[in-house]
Write a structure and sequence with these properties.
With 302 residues, this protein is of the alpha/beta class. It has helices spanning 10-21, 33-42, 50-55, 71-80, 98-109, 126-129, 139-144, 146-152, 168-196, 204-211, 220-231, 247-257, 263-275, 281-294, and strands at residues 2-6, 25-29, 45-46, 62-65, 89-92, 114-121, 132-136, 160-164. It has an 8-stranded mixed sheet, sandwiched between helices. α1 links the parallel β1 and β2.
Amino acid sequence: MELGMIGLGRMGANMTERLLRGGHRVVGYDPSPDAVRRVVEKGAARADSLPALVEQLAPPRVIWLMVPSGSPVDDTIQALLPRLTSGDVIVDGGNSNYKETMRRAQVLKQKGLHFVDAGTSGGVWGLSEGYSLMIGGEKEIVERLRPIFETLAPASNKGWGYVGTHGAGHFVKMVHNGIEYGLMQAYAEGFAILERKKEFGLDLHQIAELWRHGSVVRSWLLDLIAGALGQNPRLQGIKPYVADSGEGRWTVFEALELDVSAPVITLSLLRRLRSREEEPFLEKLLAVMRHQFGGHEIKREE
């Protein structure tokens, strides 16, 4: 099959390369000429603009978006609309909010266009290992795109699937990322306890390696932890600042709307927020209150 890929950051570029290896024709576009050049060197066709990308694809076109969530998705769709024709398909492979996906699908449907949401997991390892794809939209359109999904996935019959109507793919990916937050937090807390027990002189890399085999907590995340600790056992030079890209927040909001208790995911999100505070007002106020009611000592900044 042929498709256009818009957004050639690391993940978009890796997906393009995997598609090229699978025999698909890919036309690539990105605002960065260097990003376009890198995928052209891998065998993709060059597009220097959105109109040029559309012109190089035969109807019915398939255009895959790997752009940041929010207004960049809407802006890209709006720029494409005047150049698309009935039957064309837009796939959003980014981390969009599922409610926005449902809205976009309705807008495009009115114009005779199809919209597919493909929640995509795999990160920088997707090129070699394949991507996990959680797909929402019209089932018959998803089936039409099957060769693309089979190429991107770890295997033609593994790691990808149609999960429901418009928005379902991004909803499942949102919850996936919320779970990811909780798993990461649990591993981090466990290794922090091990690291603090100085009297045993524990080798955290060794422990991570032995847990990778036969243990009930073995996982791909643990594999990555072992690799990181092997390279930098004390995590020197790394600032304790943890970003979030939105999906954890959306998962917590959804849990509240559905009256689902999700304390682990919620607390893992709050810990990420706390990691970004260089001057945490909350803890300062706690110290002041203890001093006010009990005369407890306040530690002063030097």
